[in-house]
Design a protein that fits this description.
SLC13 family permease, five-stranded antiparallel β-sheet, alpha+beta, elongated
Length: 624
């Protein structure tokens, strides 16, 4: 038991501090559990001990720990979540969500109430049937455009977008990976999995409650962090960092290629575009030889600019404001966009230098925003994180490639000619069939979901190579790593011990006249606090065994306690790290860490009351 608790504590620290990516931490948990195994111990005067004890694995003892350590990969929850990612991607590639978003956006105008209502009203129901992280990623450009067109700060809409996707995910079993994982644990521990619409009635109630909160109290608590600007250069406060310079006749740069000049320069400077003989060039222009009279739009600080002019033989072109209009003269289509680092991106933990961003994507990064931090110089070595927002200058073709790249989310609406709109009825029909088969027949959800994923390929909604891009592998590995940890916690008696400690605290509540509903609410709050610090899936794995043991010790309905943990783990409102969708809007919204606490804590408290009362009403607290 002590070994398992040590693994749990180490995992919690790593999850909370993000010293390692969550999927790497999960793999480390798997390795640790495969190095240890439960063995039955005899005491001379006590006979066979009832509970196994974990010891380090020793070769040749005849008991393999591999099955337990790798059980997460064989879990129905892991396979179902993997299949749901494929189903979500199949729907996404038809463009149906974007079409719906565009139609709704056309009705919002400059009314904040309509914009907020449209955001919440669209993402919540969609999140009940496709992965909610994918729903936020798809709708983020639409919401940002709605805000800009309506003269509203994007910050006012993006946090509600994240929150609504979370409580919308509680409408069905397939709304979140957490629900699917909780269903498996519930099935294994008390023999009662979730049906497709097991908690839909409560999901509708919390969705209504959450929507009312966001349209009233939350509306005034959500801050306007991003300035209300249509011009991206103004939004990123680039006025002092963008300048046009001309190459003098005596410049030492003449004859060098642009790439060589940038590589050997000791200054923090980027060449954004080149103007030569009334033609404007964007990346890639690295192989162009520099000539006298060339005009460069450059990104650098004012202090650096003074030294740069003298050393490199450049002159500032006076009375030229380098804004969006100036930077978009090269093409008729948009070439200045915000790009968000997506969940599961290969750039997470890397820098602009280590990824060779400029050459790799034929794009220039003018600024980088992480939450409230805004970098406009010396950003080449800043480690990128989920939700970081890059202000990128590139050709339309390069922007199209970024838009199709799963590493990024382009935060403005960009035309996607590759949407398979003819497949919209087919994709919707496949998802409906998956839901219907799982809900109305004895066929298990994992079979239904895998069949749906196969149908997406056979019908052409997805191409075979796209299957692997559709899956968020960090989530899959996270599930595979934490599931064995929950098994170990249960088998070693760790869940019993934690439940006893919880019951001791709950005893004072019962003694003081509080009922089981108050204890259930406390279980919700404990899980919610844990989920806001670590992964929601890890919270479910750790807390469901404890919740079941607690219910059994209190002679209460164990299924009710499972539901309380499930709802709490899927609604992490108080920190940006509590849920991937919170991280996804962190950079584009320019939020501070405390914004999540200020807006999310009251909502979490409201949900604690609504969820507890709803569970007590629909399922009862007395043992079944």
């Amino acid at each position: 038991m002590l070994f398992v608790f040590a693994v749990i504590v180490a995992a919690l620290v790593l999850f909370a501090t993000e010293a390692l990516p969550v999927d790497v931490t999960a793999i480390a948990v798997m390795v640790a559990l495969m190095l240890a195994e439960p063995v039955t111990v005899f005491a001379a005067d006590a006979g066979l001990l009832a509970e196994p004890v974990y010891v380090l694995h020793q070769a040749g003892d005849g008991i393999s720990p591999l099955d337990r350590g790798l059980s997460g990969f064989a879990s129905t929850a892991t396979i179902t979540v993997l299949a749901m990612f494929i189903l979500s991607d199949g729907v996404q590639r038809t463009g149906i969500v974007q079409i719906l978003g565009a139609k709704i956006a056309s009705l919002t105008g400059d009314s904040e109430t309509k914009q907020l209502g449209a955001t919440v009203g669209l993402v919540a129901p969609i999140s009940g049937f496709i992965n909610n992280t994918a729903a936020v990623a798809i709708l983020l450009p639409m919401v940002t455009d709605i805000a800009h067109k309506g003269k509203l700060s994007p910050s006012k809409l993006l946090l509600p977008l994240s929150y609504a996707s979370m409580f919308g995910g509680m409408l069905t079993l397939i709304g979140t990976s957490t629900n699917i994982l909780a269903s498996q644990l519930s099935s294994e521990l008390i023999g009662r999995p979730f049906s497709m619409f097991e908690f839909t009635q409560l999901g509708i109630i919390v969705t209504i409650v959450g929507t009312i909160y966001l349209l009233t109290v939350g509306r005034y608590l959500v801050p306007s962090r991003i300035p209300v600007e249509e011009d991206l250069t103004q939004e990123f406060e680039m006025g002092e960092y963008l300048t046009e310079v001309v190459v003098r006749e005596d410049s030492p740069l003449i004859g060098q290629t642009v790439e060589e000049a940038l590589r050997v320069s000791k200054f923090d400077v980027d060449i954004v575009q080149l103007v030569r003989e009334k033609r404007t060039f964007l990346e890639p222009f690295g192989q162009k030889a520099i000539r006298a009279g060339d005009v460069f739009a450059i990104r650098t600080g004012r202090d650096t600019l003074v030294d740069l002019l003298d050393v490199e033989g450049l002159d500032v072109i006076p009375e030229v404001e380098v804004d969006d209009a100036e930077l978009e003269t090269a093409t008729e289509r948009k070439n200045l966009v915000e790009v968000v680092v997506a969940p599961g991106s290969s750039l997470i933990g890397e820098t602009l230098v280590s990824t060779n961003f400029r050459q790799r994507y034929d794009a220039t990064v003018l600024a980088l925003r992480h939450g409230q931090e805004l970098y406009r110089q010396r950003m080449d070595h800043v480690k990128l994180r989920i939700g970081d927002t890059l202000l990128v200058q590139a050709t339309p073709d390069s922007i199209d490639r970024l838009n199709r790249n799963n590493d990024f989310i382009v935060a403005q609406e960009v035309e996607r000619p590759d949407f398979r709109q003819s497949k919209i009825p087919v994709a919707i029909g496949i998802v409906a069939a998956v839901v219907g088969v799982a809900a109305l027949t004895p066929i298990h959800i994992v079979i239904s979901a895998l069949g749906g994923a196969l149908a997406m390929v056979l019908t052409g909604c997805l191409r075979p190579p796209e299957l692997y891009d559709a899956v968020q592998w960090d989530v899959v590995f996270l599930l595979a790593g934490v599931i064995p940890l929950g098994i170990a916690l249960q088998e070693t008696g760790g869940a019993d011990l934690l439940a006893e400690l919880f019951v001791m605290g709950a005893g004072s509540i019962l003694t003081a006249g509080g009922g089981l509903a108050v204890v259930l609410g406390l279980m919700y709050l404990v899980t919610a606090l844990l989920t806001n610090i670590i992964s929601n899936n890890a919270s479910v794995v750790l807390m469901i065994p404890v919740a079941i043991e607690t219910a059994q010790q209190l002679n209460a309905n164990a299924f009710a306690f499972v539901l309380a943990v499930t709802f709490a783990a899927s609604t992490a409102f108080m920190t940006p790290v509590g849920y991937q969708t919170n991280l996804l809007v962190y950079g584009p919204g320019g939020y501070q860490f405390t914004d999540y606490l200020k807006v999310g804590a009251p909502l979490q408290a409201v949900f604690a009351i609504a969820t507890t009362l709803g569970i007590a009403y629909f399922w009862g607290l007395a043992p079944a």
